[in-house]
Design goal:
Layout (H helix, E strand, L loop, with lengths): L1 H18 L1 E2 L11 E10 H12 L2 E4 L6 E10 H12 L1 E6 L2 E6 L2
Parallel strand pairs: 3-6
Antiparallel strand pairs: 1-5, 2-4, 5-6
Helix pairs in contact: 2-3
Length: 106
């Protein structure tokens, strides 16, 4: 039984890796819930946590993601805000199923 569980877990990992996609790929149409965001010198980790709350999305932010950002946006989709922050801070956002993974661009 244990060998069967390990086999299923390994198979599931292989399928997940193939399903990964970039949130901010060129030509992406942003469809997330719109919101107003006005922050000054906000920690980018906190901004991503706020966006995860609004979008009801799971979030993983790498330890090397650090910095501050100032934003004043009106009626902008949450996913477009995430991509804007990522572009300014040179970050990469990968979607794995229902999880957003934010890492430094290599």
């Amino acid at each position: 039984m244990r060998a069967l569980l390990i086999t299923i877990a390994v198979a599931a990992l292989g399928e997940t890796a193939a399903a990964d996609r970039e949130l901010c790929a060129p030509g992406t149409r942003f469809r997330g819930q719109t919101l107003d965001l006005d922050v000054k010198a906000a920690d980018i980790r906190d901004v991503f946590r706020l966006l995860a709350d609004v979008s009801k999305t799971n979030l993983v932010v790498s330890d090397d993601v650090q910095g501050k950002i100032t934003l004043r946006l009106k009626r902008v989709p949450w996913d477009q805000i995430a991509c804007t922050v990522a572009a300014v801070q040179k970050l990469h956002i990968t979607v794995q199923d229902s999880i957003l993974m934010v890492t430094r661009r290599k």
